[in-house]
Amino acid sequence: MQFSCDPDQEGDELPQYEHIYQNDFSYRKHKKQKEEDISICECKFDFGDPDSACGERCLNVITNTECTPGYCPCGVYCKNQKYQKCEYAKTKLIKSEGRGWGLVALEEIKEGQFIIEYC
């Protein structure tokens, strides 16, 4: 994933950083989720209604839990895997006066919408 910067700020260089594509658990091994702990929603995908796949009425959405690939009844049509699929909102970095670098949305962001993963 690449960030876009404001073209009016071409002279300002981004601070050095290393972009990673997944978490690197350096202090402990990543624990696999136990199958019995996976929260499986009861959504049903309807081809006549594309918004039916894990929308605002999905139990996992309501509890801020992403559906687990391979377990969601909606399969590839699931809309509740934005974190796992890196489906980020469109953004750009800007240098603000006296405050350093900031992230600005390039599209409307709705209340509760997933924006981006960061660490």
TrEMBL record:
The record's subcellular location field reads: Chromosome; Nucleus
Top-level taxonomic group: Eukaryota
Give GO MF terms, alphabetically: histone methyltransferase activity
The primary location reported for this protein is nucleus
GO cellular component terms attached to this protein's record: chromosome; nucleus
Q: Which Pfam families does the UniProt entry name for this protein?
A: AWS (PF17907)
A single GO BP term for this record reads: methylation
Annotated AWS domain residues? 36-87
Keyword entries, A-Z: Chromosome, Methyltransferase, Nucleus, S-adenosyl-L-methionine, Transferase
Q: Which residues form a coiled coil?
A: none
The cross-references to InterPro entries, in alphabetical order and at most eight, read: AWS_dom (IPR006560), SET2_Histone-Lys_MeTrsfase (IPR050777), SET_dom_sf (IPR046341)
Concerning PANTHER family, the annotation shows: SET DOMAIN PROTEINS (PTHR22884)
According to UniProt, the name of this protein is: Histone-lysine N-methyltransferase ASHH1
Organism in which the protein naturally occurs: Noccaea caerulescens
